[in-house]
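Q: What residues go here?
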């Protein structure tokens, strides 16, 4: 059976176009597809700016150039080679490219790996009192070797632990409120889908609303 992967795409916006009239300003880069893209499907990134040429930069690929006005759309087949960080820039040939856009991080995952589960200790009070430490546990299958904890997405990695036995504990000192997920990598490589989100509430902070579009494993739907 062939290897199947998903591409997790997560990025932030930095306002400001670039081009001949404002060579030092930056374009915007965003994803136009859901953040988990199965292998063989398409990752679609859009670069916004006046052009007249747009360049997509990836850390594992040669730059791709499209001539367009106002925006350019780049379509990439989702493979393991698509993992990494992307930026774009504008160019007015024959001049040099302008500064890079905001980064968009791509994480490749394997949907055939069992989803992990993220949990708090049974007696952990919620909301969490401010200034206290919290331990969360990510549990995967016995072959899980490396665990990663994220807050809000791949750009918000909190920690990474290499262990054996199928589970890892993360100690959070004065944690920030938000939705946390974890992933694992088995000994043979690859990255799992993220766990169902764990909503961590902190006393004195505004409540974080549920996000019905939060990606993850199918069994989390309906609550976290």
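A:
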């Amino acid at each position: 059976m062939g290897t199947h992967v998903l591409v997790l795409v997560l990025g932030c916006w930095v306002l400001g176009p670039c081009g001949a009239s404002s060579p030092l300003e930056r374009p915007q880069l965003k994803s136009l597809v859901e953040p988990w893209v199965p292998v063989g499907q398409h990752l679609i990134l859009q670069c916004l700016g006046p052009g007249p040429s747009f360049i997509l930069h990836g850390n594992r690929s040669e730059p791709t150039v499209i001539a367009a006005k106002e925006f350019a759309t780049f379509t990439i087949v989702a493979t393991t080679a698509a993992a990494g960080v992307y930026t774009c820039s504008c160019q007015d040939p024959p001049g040099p490219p302008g500064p890079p856009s905001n980064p968009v991080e791509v994480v490749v995952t394997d949907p055939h790996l069992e989803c992990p589960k993220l949990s708090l200790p049974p007696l952990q009070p919620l909301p969490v009192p401010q200034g206290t430490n919290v331990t969360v546990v990510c549990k995967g299958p016995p072959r899980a070797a490396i665990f990663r904890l994220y807050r809000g997405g791949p750009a918000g990695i909190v920690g990474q632990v290499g262990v054996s036995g199928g589970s890892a504990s993360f100690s959070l000192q004065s944690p920030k409120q938000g939705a946390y997920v974890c992933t694992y990598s088995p000994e043979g490589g690859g990255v799992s889908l993220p766990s169902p989100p764990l909503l961590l509430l902190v006393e004195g902070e505004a409540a974080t609303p549920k996000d019905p579009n939060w990606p993850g494993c199918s069994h989390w739907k309906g609550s976290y």
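A: Context that may help when evaluating the design: The longest strand covers residues 178-186. The chain has no helices and 16 strands.
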